[in-house]
Amino acid sequence: MLFEWIKTKQIDKSYLIQNTTFQLPLSKYSFPPKLPSFEKSLTSKLSKSGRAWCIWTRLRPWYRGGPRGRRRTGRSEEEEKWVPVTKLGRLVREAKIRSLEQIYLPSLPIKEYQIIDTLIGHKLKDEVMKIMPVQKQTRADQRTRFKAFVVVGDTDGHVGLGVKCSKEVATVIRGVIILAKLSVIPVRRGYWGNKIGRPHTVPCKVTGKCGSVTARMVPAPRGAGIVAARVPKKVLQFAGIDDVFKSSRGSTKTLGNFVKATFECLLKTYGFLTPDFWRETRFVKSPYQEYTDLLTAKPISKAVITEVDQDEP
């Protein structure tokens, strides 16, 4: 093969390598690539053909259509084009359901995380509590994956916990945030003494357990703050609780069980029947019954007009 010497300082429109047919436009990529000093000293000792080949090996990825790797489209476009696949998602998109309480009251399952984003996405915060490697022994070798714990909440009575394991860190974080949004629960708040102002603490003593960790929450007076460790304190802040006394026992250094026990405490706040709930329950229609006509209506299909040739008399 015949290689032509490339004069990088005098090239204006294209690089000519081996032939005039090998042209690399300068409009899409920035050329020439900057060579390190040790490569410059190395190429200066080679012949013209050898120097041309060294530069060609560095330009080959750009000549074949750009840097290697998958070309990924923006995620914002995909999120904007949300097409709900459940009845609940359709009602949320049509603005028939405007709050999470309309979903929790009839105990409707949330299967799409976009529902949470639509209703409380502007107030939702998330934090990665821990990312830890886990291993599985196979015949060939150990298989290492990453496990993540993420807490989401709006600091106004809604909190969620997600746990996921995957091969890559980026994938596990993206997936665990979705799982945390799907597991968002309502948190009941109450008072320590007189019912003055907004609710600020848990309504009663609650206990949660996961593994060997047992967590217990006790109502605290206004101004006491969150008396808890670092891990449960972040969960309680996301839940919107301002004052609480918390005690725990067991192996609390196992962060996964510790945060799960705290989450179970918050889950039980609505499971305790207090005199506030002794009033007669007025049953209302489920959103599926109330908007039956909207859910059963089929989308209007475009009419296809065909021209019919009429024979002239």
What descriptive keywords fit this protein?
4-stranded mixed β-sheet, 313 residues, alpha+beta, single chain, flat, 4-stranded antiparallel β-sheet
Q: Which structural class do the helices and strands define?
A: alpha+beta
Number of DSSP strand runs? 8
Shape: flat
Sheet with the most strands: spatial strand order = 1-2-3-4
**Element string (H = helix, E = strand):** HHHHHHEEEHEEEEHEHHH
Strand portion, in percent? 15-25%
Helix content: 25-40%
Span from first to last CA?
77 Å
Write the layout of secondary structure elements.
Layout (H helix, E strand, L loop, with lengths): L36 H7 L4 H16 L11 H6 L6 H7 L7 H4 L8 H8 L4 E13 L4 E12 L4 E9 L2 H14 L2 E2 L19 E5 L2 E7 L6 E2 L2 H10 L4 E6 L5 H13 L19 H4 L1 H5 L17
Parallel strand pairs: 7-8
Antiparallel strand pairs: 1-2, 2-3, 3-4, 5-6, 6-8
Helix pairs in contact: 4-6, 8-9
How would you portray this structure in words?
- The chain is an alpha+beta fold.
- It is built from eleven helices and eight strands.
- A four-stranded antiparallel beta sheet has the order 1-2-3-4, sandwiched between helices.
- Helix 8 (230-239) links the parallel strand 7 and strand 8.
- Helix 4 (87-93) runs parallel beside helix 6 (113-120) and helix 8 (230-239) runs parallel beside helix 9.
- It is flat.
- Mean pLDDT is 79; it is low at 1-43, 59-71 and 301-305.
